[in-house]
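Protein in question filed below.

…
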Amino acid sequence: MDGFVLVLKLVITVTFCLSFYYAVKNYRITKSHVWLFLVMSLITASVLSFVRFVKEFFYLNFQEYEHIIIILELVKINLIPFVTAFLLSAAVTISRERLTAVIPIESPDKTDTHYGIEKGTTYLVTEETPRRGFHIFLDLLSHGYRGLGILRTHPDEVRREYNITDVPILWMSRLQVGENVVYPSIKVIEQIIEEFLENEGTHIIFLERLDYIISQRGFEKTLQFIQKLSSLVYITKSVALVHIDPLTIDKRELVLIEKETKILEEKHPELEEDLLELLKYVYDKNIKGIKPNLKQVTRDLSLSRNTARKRINSLRLKNLIVLKEKGREKVLEITRLGETFI
């Protein structure tokens, strides 16, 4: 029995040492406070184990070392809450860092976007399907805005259709759970938005299917949420796009929402003639099943390589075309947003 206890203690000690080593290593690499809290909890737990082992040693002569045993017991009791506190801090930090981007974010252009969007404004996008809302969302992302999508459409479908990468997309659902799933609770959504707006940069929030939130939480609570969202967006000089299908609610409710937001007017962005020429060229090739490369562009449009690259990069930044790998070369493909210009 004594041998079994000794082996068990040895296993626990080795486990603590390995955990401590990897926690410190990851903290140095990531500089994340999660690892800092984990290291602190592991250190505290290690001290707890050491205290327990020492106490067992003194138990052999209980009467002689009674006062030491009592002190060690008090130390152990007081250390247990610290382990819990550090682990809880790590869990909270994980939830707060979930929306933090891992890539550098460029500052938004000082010039107006294609759709004339103003900072500090919450826009109402009224359409059956949020295609125009996604196009504006993509346009602002191309201008350096930091984006967050809270959608009813599944994130995989959105990323596949609109080629959105490196942007947190959350799916509103009552049935599913996971890192990219948010329960349709107004308090939960408010907390996510508030934490997102605490990050540096200028932000764009796209909230799809407001009618879904109304069906889950009622109109009055949803209207109060829109009022608070408008205030947050104004204070932080951010932009919010709120999509709703106007056929899903009555006229009075729609008017009340419109009073708290700004109706997004139809405005098709303009495109320079040289960029439009290249975009039409890519479109014509794509509908024939051809994805042109840089060499074909320079030859067919009589452009230098530098000029062709500049125009391609301009269209890419506007999310009108994408570059895709095809063997050793890269080919051009028009996006759904790009098709709206043709």
Notes: DSSP finds 13 helices and nine strands in the chain. Strands lie at 121-126, 146-151, 169-172, 181-182, 203-207, 239-244, 262-263, 321-326, 329-334. The two ends are 81 Å apart (CA to CA).
